[in-house]
Amino acid sequence: MKEAIVLIIYKIIYFLVRLFPGEPGVKHLVIIKTDEIGDYMLVRNVLPCFRKSDMFRDYRISFVGNSIFRQIYNRYDQDTADNVIWIDKWKFRKNLKYRFRMLRQIRRLGATDLVNLVYSGNYRLDDAIADISTAARKTAMASRKDSFIERILFDRKKIYDRLIDPGPASLFDGERNA
Q1: Which 8-state DSSP code applies to residue 58?
Q2: ∠ at Cα 66 (129, 25), nearest 5°?
Q3: Are 162 and 139 in contact (CB under 8 A)?
Q4: Secondary structure (3-state) at 169
Q5: Which helix (H) or strand (E) holds 12?
Q6: CB within 8 A of 53, min separation 6: which ones?
Q7: DSSP secondary structure of 82-104
Q8: Which distant-in-sequence residues (6+ apart) come within 8 Å of 132 by Cβ?
Q9: In angstroms, rounded to a whole number, what is the distance separating the alpha carbons of residues 9 and 7?
């Protein structure tokens, strides 16, 4: 019951954030990687590929990441994005005002494309970010196991227009990311 109440409150916040118009975007990719340091270390080598790819070469790139790996990103990977938004996951879960502010900031990016690199994400964080984004094209991995209440309140097929098969659960995340 508590989980349902929390998710309903989150859903209300998303409706409020959507009242703010998103900036019209032109070739703007948002990359989401909000999981932990180990997961980030396994995806680091993939990040430069976005800027070098034929598809996103001319795009402005914004990176939304977990503030826990901010120092590593700033030291080694800061050239992979034009803009970075750091999320404090604890505050994002516990502080509704902070959650609202961060989601509104992401909405205002004016994204045209979004890629969620979180393999085992959840609606409380990375899918919420994708859901409020203005991006017309949103891609994620189709691996999540939603709780019953999440399946009722949120449908990933309505958030993302492309859900990619990430391969078997036993696949090494370094390979999955590539």
Answers
A1: T
A2: 40
A3: yes
A4: coil
A5: helix 2-18
A6: none
A7: SEEEEE-HHHHHH-HHHHHHHHH
A8: 14, 17, 18, 103, 106, 107
A9: 5
Q: Which two tokens stand for residue 23?
A: 């900036």
Q: What percent of the chain has pLDDT over 90?
A: 57
* pLDDT tens digits for range 12-55: 888 888 888 777 788 999 999 999 999 999 999 999 999 999 99
8 A C-beta contact, residue 9 and residue 96: yes
Place of tokens 């900036």: 23
Q: And the tokens for 73?
A: 């990103």
Residue 133 — φ and ψ, nearest 5°? -65, 150
- 76/80 Cα distance (integer angstroms): 9
pTM of the model: 0.89
Rounded to 10 degrees, the C-alpha dihedral 33/163/14/61 comes to 40
Cβ proximity of 76 and 40 under 8 Å: no
**Dist. CA 102–CA 24, nearest whole Å:** 19
Element at 162 (helix H, strand E)? strand 162-164
Query: Which tokens sit at 147?
Result: 């709780």
3-state DSSP assignment of residue 63: strand
